[in-house]
Each structure stands twice: as structure tokens, then as C-alpha cells.
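Case study 2.
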Amino acid sequence: MTILKLSAAALVATVAFAGAAAARDQIQIAGSSTVLPYASIVAEAFGENFDFPTPVVESGGSGAGRKKLCEGVGENTIDIANSSSRIKQSDIDTCTANGVTEIQEVRIGYDGIVFASDINGPEYAFTPSDWHNALAAKVLKDGQLVDNPYKNWNEIRADLPAQPILAFIPGTKHGTREVFDEKVIVDGCKENGAAEAHKAAGAEDANKACMALRTDGVAVDIDGDYTETLARVDANKNGIGVFGLSFYQNNTDKLRVGTMSGVSPSVETIASGEYPVSRPLYFYVKNAHLDVIPGLQEYVEFFVSDDMAGPNGPLAAYGLVSDPELAKTQAAVKARTPMGALN
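Prediction:
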């Protein structure tokens, strides 16, 4: 006979949930501010079309949402974490240690990271190398790694505007920051040769060295959502903000977007893979709650349905790039397929 062994944390959480779950009949969601508007659209439509309460959707950042998801199993813990970056193995390990042993990874579509300034300001045509040279603590100049000396964009490249460098970038708790670091700063560091210079200088992790940003007030972390970034740009007309595509598309009366490597960000250029700074968006589901929190399975299936996440649905109308493999996600959601360890 096989004896199932549960960790102490899992056993305590399971017993607690069995006795207390009935106290909550409303789905609880937290996490990414990028995914927030999409989840809010779905939650509102879900409440209108199903005999379940409208889910509660909060933000707080991708990392914070995943942390909440992994606190344990029970009606005092959330059911879903929205995330604009993929879950980390360390998150999965924390979940497992706290009794959250089955998690579904649900990819809802794609979004792009855009670089936008005041609508009345000059046009920008960026490359990842420009952004690394603008914001990195150390840059390659005359063959040597030096403290970043640049004050204006046209010092980096003569055809860029003669405006002071000032960037409002996502804070470190945001999933958008991970994508910005990896697909802009690190790629730019490799593009301009600084990564090789860091290796030659003895850096144990060249990527980490590339991601070290200047601390002289030029790179400003924004811990709030994109509305705070927009407010900063509005108050600082020379500033450039990092936004999600959908947020920019809903604020084209206030913002002018820059190109990246010669490509303008749009639903079409992200769907084709032409725009270089795009990322998948996710949410993560606690499977242990599926049969206990009323409507949770229905909500998950509704979110990725053709009517909501398809190319003609309301999420696409708001700016989400529909996933070409949406049918695979729908099948996995219906089967409640848990994710395994990350490679």
C-alpha cells in the first residue's frame, strides 16, 4: 500500500482550508499592474454573466502577487497571482514549502514595453545600446569602462534630441522591470561591447554588472503603476517613461512613443515578433482552490475564452496581443494542468 506523505505546512494548510473555505465566496486576485486592467475587464464581465460574485482584483506588482500566492492554502490566501514576467523557480520552491503544490501557469497573451515622452516633445528613435549608455552606472568609452558621464541624449548619439537624460523606469518589484533589464539594458550592454568589457574586467556575472544603473537621479524607479509614471512625465517634460503598450495606446493624447531598433510598437509589430521589446503576460492559479472557491474554474476558463482573450475580444480592443497558441492554453486550463519545475 502506498502512503501519501505531506509536509507539515501542507497538512496544516489543507486542514485549515477544509474547515474555513466556506467563509469566502469571492475570488481574490493580486499582482501585476500591467495585467490589472485586463483582469479587471474580465472580472467585471464575469460578474455580469455568471451567477458568482465579481472577483476582487488588486495590484501591488508581479513579485508581490506571486509571494502572496505562495503564502499557503486557505481562504485567507489569494487564488490567483497576475504577473507580467514569468514565475521564478524560487517562487515555486516557496509555494511548495508552504503547501501550494500545484500551480497552473496561464499565458493570456502578449504586451510590449514602450518608451514614451510628452506629446509635445521631440521624436526619439532608440536602440537598446542607447538606453544602456544613458542609464548604466558604467559605460564603455574610448575602449575603457568608466563612470557614466552622459548628461544629454545627443551625447550618446548625435542624432538623438539635445535633451537632458531623465528616465522613469519600473521599480524592482514590477515584472516590467525584469523585462526592461533583460531585453533593453542587458541587450544594449551586449550591443555596445560593455558586456565583454565587464567580463574582461573580471566580473563574475556580466549581465548583473550590465544591469547596475547610475544613482545620480537620472534613472528614477517608479514603484506605483503607469499612472504614476505618466504623472512624472507630465511634471517633467524632458522625462521619458517606460510603459506597457496598452497603457500608451490609451494615452496617445498625452504621450509620444519612440521607436526601438527602427520599429514602432504596435499590436501588429508585437504579434509578428518584429518589435524587439515584447513579453508574454501570465496569471498563476492555485489548483487547491479550484473546487473550493465558487466560480474559480469558471473564471479561469472565461478569461482565456475566445470571447475574452481572442483577437476580436475586449482584451485585444484594450491592447492585448492575442496569443496565437490560445487554444493550447484553453485545453490546459480545462484539464487543470499544473506546471512543473522550470528548466
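Residues 175-191 form the longest helix (17 residues).
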